[in-house]
């Protein structure tokens, strides 16, 4: 009887073990649990698709139109004419150049200052907590609050020129915001002042992960503080530097608030960035199609720059 029952079992499949759930039942329960989680993430998925991907697609569509932005106004399809106009637009290329060297200079200065400040904090600096607060506070200030202050400081009749006149350096005073070179310098100063605190905090956190025994061994071998920072600490915080470079690149590409609030892109487009130029073309000139084309170019630049930096960082980590 038992032999006959065993023979009737499906070949290759063992008999169910008493007290153990069937594999099919486990799979079904797992599928139910996974399916029950879909309603929770569905709103987020719809939100991302609606706000991000739909917006990108719609911007790409608008970039092929000649349109003034008003819903009831007629729009005329122009194909790639807006992109052709962008290639021949000297203000666009000037804005792109400003964005590029703005990123290089501000990232370099912020990295050096942030690294030095973090190293000073790890050297048991007196009043270290106060120093940390003073350096980091500008990071949490809104540009809408601090930009008008700097605009007033660097104005032709501002506090900086008054101070220079008071100490006998009136020959140095000038209308800082009326000259393209000095106006760009002012924008860079404001940006470095605002974001060095973030660089400092990230470097400080990265240096906290360095094994103290490694530093102690380096000092026993005769390495001074500068040599230890250059040969031991700096290579160990390379990942933080790469992350800051990526953040700096994205920040430079979308720079708008500080140059617009301090100089409004002037004088004579001397502090024009891609973000401020898009705003100028869209709001002041009502050329929505061309503004959308520049926005698409900005998106392509951001994605390309991010991918290239990621590839470079991975190769550096492997080497």
TrEMBL record:
Entry's Gene Ontology BP terms: transmembrane transport
Q: Which SUPFAM superfamilies has this protein been placed in?
A: MetI-like (SSF161098)
Q: Which domain of life is it from?
A: Bacteria
Pfam families under this entry? BPD_transp_1
Matching Gene3D superfamilies: MetI-like
Q: Does the keyword Protein transport apply?
A: no
User: Per the record, which residues fall in region Disordered?
Assistant: 1-26
User: Per the record, what is one GO cellular component?
Assistant: plasma membrane
Where does the UniProt entry say this protein principally localizes? membrane
Under InterPro entries, the record lists: ABC_transporter_permease, MetI-like, MetI-like_sf
Q: Which PROSITE patterns match?
A: ABC_TM1 (PS50928)
Q: Does the keyword Transmembrane helix apply?
A: yes
List all membrane-crossing ranges. Answer: 38-58, 100-121, 133-154, 183-207, 228-253, 288-311
Any idea which UniProt keywords this protein has? Cell membrane, Membrane, Transmembrane, Transmembrane helix, Transport
Domain ABC transmembrane type-1: residue ranges: 96-309
Q: How does it sit in the membrane?
A: Multi-pass membrane protein
Q: Where in the cell is it found?
A: Cell membrane
Identify its protein family: Belongs to the binding-protein-dependent transport system permease family.
- List, alphabetically, the PANTHER family matched: ABC TRANSPORTER PERMEASE PROTEIN (PTHR30193), DIACETYLCHITOBIOSE UPTAKE SYSTEM PERMEASE PROTEIN NGCF (PTHR30193:SF41)
Q: What is this protein called?
A: Putative ABC transporter permease protein YurN
